[in-house]
Amino acid sequence: MTDAQVGAPLPDMPDDFSSVLVIVAHPDDPEYGIGSAVAAWTRAGKRVGYLLASRGEAGIEGLDPAESAIVRTKEQEAACREVGVTSLVFLDEPDGRILATPQLRTKIAHEIRRFRPELVVLLNFQPTRGGRFFNSADHRNLGQAAVDGVADAGNEWIVPGARYDGVARIVEFGAEPTHRIDVTDGVEAAVASLTCHREYLAALSDEPVEEQARAQIDSTLTHEDGRAYLGFRVYG
Ligand SMILES: [Zn+2]
To answer: Scanning 96, 171, 212, 226, which has its CA 20 to 30 A from the CA of 141?
Structure first.
């Protein structure tokens, strides 16, 4: 928890959008916190899609990447069902070697034009997590490629095709938050969604997967008057 969350409540993020694209590097990246907002949004009738750069094939120690990719794809599909996400796209970039290349920006721009989100949600792509831990190269590079891909989608000369400049706002989860979202209606679905990454979580800890998932989701929330809130850094 950050100082900003301990002090006065953050302002509420405007709820003026109907479509959301979550763009992240790996399976489980949306489930470590963003999922509670996603579940609240889909329950409220918003359209939410996930765009994943990789299949997380290098993520399970002792499990061959070819096999891991299959396991993690299935776990991600199940995680999506729990929070009402019906569009799941993998770009098949190499896990652990994601670079913010013009080619990746172009792929992201095409998906932005196809899905036409008003809000784009990213995972922390700053150099560190809270100034205490170094962020992964994939998270840094993918976040930067996504920001640039949103801009590229709006230019028919950089990426040939019909331009789309309807992204009104980009938000980042896991960086110093500026706003909050009431996610009370999405918390249980978020726990269920993270629990779907069963093999991945089981390889990380001996603690039962359900308990790991609930502890992780709880650690992301603040509470006020019986409501649960998730913080985001809002750009735009
Ligand atoms: Zn990740």
So the answer is: 212
Tokens matching residue 55 = 């299949």
Q: Could you tell me the domains of the chain?
A: 3-235 (3.40.50.10320)
What's the pLDDT band for 186 if we cut at 50, 70, 90?
A: very high
Q: How many angstroms separate the alpha carbon of residue 161 from the centre of ligand 1?
A: 31
pTM over 0.70: yes
204 alpha carbon – ligand 1 mean position (Å): 14
Cα 94 to averaged position of ligand 1 atoms, centre (Å): 12
Mean pLDDT of 195-212: 93
Q: Which residues surround ligand 1, an ion (CB under 5 A)?
A: 25-26, 29
> Tell me: the pLDDT tens digits for 9-33?
999 999 999 999 999 999 999 999 9
Query: What's the mean pLDDT in 78-94?
Result: 98
Q: How far is the CA of 100 from the centre of ligand 1 (A)?
A: 15
